[in-house]
User: Fold these one by one.
Assistant:
Number 1:
Amino acid sequence: MNVFILVVFFGSALAFPFEINVNWPFIVADEQTNNMEAFFKDQKIQAEKAFTSSIEEARRMKNSVFNYFELKQREISDDFYDYVESVKESGRKFSDSWSFLPSEEAGDRMENPDMVLSVPSIIIRNGYPCETHIVMSQGYLLNIHRIPRSKNGGGIPKKTVILHHGLFASSADWILNGPEKSLAYILADAGYDVWMPNIRGNKYSREHAWLKTNSKSFWNFSWHDVAVYDVPAIIDYILKEKGEGTKLTYIGHSMGTTILFAMLTMRPEYNDILTAGFALAPVVFLSDIKSPIKSLSTVASNVAQMEMLYGSYEFIPKNSVLGKMTQSCDVDGRDAAVCKNLLFYICGYNEKQFNKTLLPIFLSHIGTGTSWKTAVHFAQEVVVGGKFQQFDYGTDLNLRVYGSKAPPQYDLDKIKLPLTLFWAENDLLSSEADVKELYKRLPPTTQIYKISDPDFNHLDYLWAIDAPTLLTDKILFYLEQVYSTL
């Protein structure tokens, strides 16, 4: 689960105050209609008061969260606090249009081109081959970035890995830490064919065969739809592309793990199609979540309310998250206090594993777009605690969609795929208790591994300085275990 979106979510209520603009047409033919007109005017006033009251309540809840963040501010190191101030300055040089993919020419003009280059361009710039494949699922045109072999050449290996990113993220997650530390490059050099999908709605998968991007229908999806339709379509495409004998393993981070477990329950045939699954920071049960976003979940657990409140079906409309973040951090007071240490607030404090020189690059690729429904589905998971369930539409609509008042739970008993879970003590989003509860409900063949660094957090799986020794070596070890038995 990525984190910078919270600045947009709670900062915009301050930046863009709401206006009530309700047009009530009245046609008054004679004096006998005056009473009716007065009645409807009174109803209008009451409706406006109720709406305004709900907005004020949302703002009060938001302010209480900001106050919490201000208190937590004191627990974060002054060094990181000061460093983010300097990053704000370089942030002003970033592109202000998140939906466009910058060119190599733009990258050459910057001190670090990776800040503006697209994922394929970064991969090629680092000397690796790269391909872009497009898979259509329910009309969505999904871009998959592929590193088919090592930079040293050779044939395309049969051992194949899918790397699926987390919430508000993209395939960039797997390459931004550089060739020596990023999982995608290390797997390619170890003899794996690496495929990195992009979820529907992010900046690489924003096209649809018949729906417009600004339509409500385009954004009417959650991670459930990705699990049931998109990832199976991607798996089928890869196996068809590569041919007989292909051994395919799925590795997901955060929401990428949620998608894996939902798919294995809803499409159980993929338990036999995949070779193994690796879950980095599993997000299935969220009853013991330690992150401050737990207190925000009750506010953001209804799609219609969020869409009405922010006037968009997309969670991050139009402007870049980075642009919004920089703008919000320029504001003195509580907004700045949130922005300056948002990473550590949400994911866990671990300064020694955080590569400060790469922070501008990370920021430039974070927040690639998703639907309100996706974010709300996670908020619902937090609210219900120890349940892993489908989207909750409310009692009436649940009866129409599911035939029951409550949404169905995903049946983890259907999972048969060999799995390995990775967890970290300082991960505030994927806690020890929740991961171990998941482990108890999975097949006895499931393995579980605790990261040895006690300060390892939710984003260290992607960006840690010592990721190769703390995590990647263990992934390679378990992968070789899997393939040695085939």
Note: The chain has 19 helices and nine strands.
Number 2:
Amino acid sequence: MMKKVFMLICLIFVLVIAQAAMAEEEAPLPLKAQERMEMVLYGEPMTGGLIERLGKVEKDLFGRELPGSISERQSGLLNFIENGTLGNPSMLFKLSVAEWSVNHKVNPESPVSTRIDALETLLEGKPQVDKPLAMRLERMLSLLFPDTLTWTEVELPANTVFKAAFTQTISPAVAKKGDQVKLALAQDLVVDGNLVAPRGSLVFAEIDNVKPPRSFGRPSEITFAFKHLVPLGPEVVPVFMGDKAISVNKDNKTMAIAAGTSVVGLVALGPVGLAGGFFVKGDAKEIPAGTNIYLETSQVVTVHAWPVPPGLQGMIKEAEDMPVPSDSATSEETLSEGENADEAKD
């Protein structure tokens, strides 16, 4: 098995360098590219000279330094880690699939080295820290799946509703305009048996406006702008709070129950102006971490997905409890609520 894995790593060397030659024109600045790789692999930037740091990344990944110029090596490594190379899925794609097959969720906020250590501990009792990261991952894939892991392009429809949960507590007392907000996918997002985004995948949002409790008993308000979902592949999926998501949230009442609010306003503020936003108002002091909310894709997106083998289809955990969007949630109703909310602000 180790010989097979070694041969695969040798093939990866060739693919990395070949892809680097094609990607060199779009390469980021060397220091930025180096920090980006180190954040993904280790969770923090390393110290020392650029060449020394680059060599460490290569040796940690492959057990040896790669040939070529700094820009070629960095471009090739970024493609290997994030984008995939000449039909071969990226390292992050493979790691997430392996993680999902064992834990039924992914942990994208942890660095690659930590995630590989954790997987090896689950599978073999302890991490194989003396071996290169790429070889360790390929070895685990060979243990988990009988065939070589592949990916395929699928079309994720617009207005696909999905459930996500806030990963941190949001408080009007400390939240500021421009703060980044992260949510985690609370279900597997699947298209025709192809895993697009496993449970735990990140959804990024931003706080657009905050109003603390005001005079005359007017409650606090937080306005969010949802940005995108990060799927298995290198693409991003734009998301927003559209009519379908609003309808499901109203029927499910997830926000009101979890946040303990007496009034929760879910109002689409796009596509004109703040695309994909919504606001929450009420007498609660915060939105607790773990609060669920339903969002939807804002456009058709072609993404790379994993064709889940027939024997593993039973692992897919979609949102069985998600109610069917009600026909009553029309754009007219949404705009009416928005007008009422604007009146409350004055």
Note: Residues 260-265, 269-276, 327-346 have pLDDT under 50 and may be disordered.
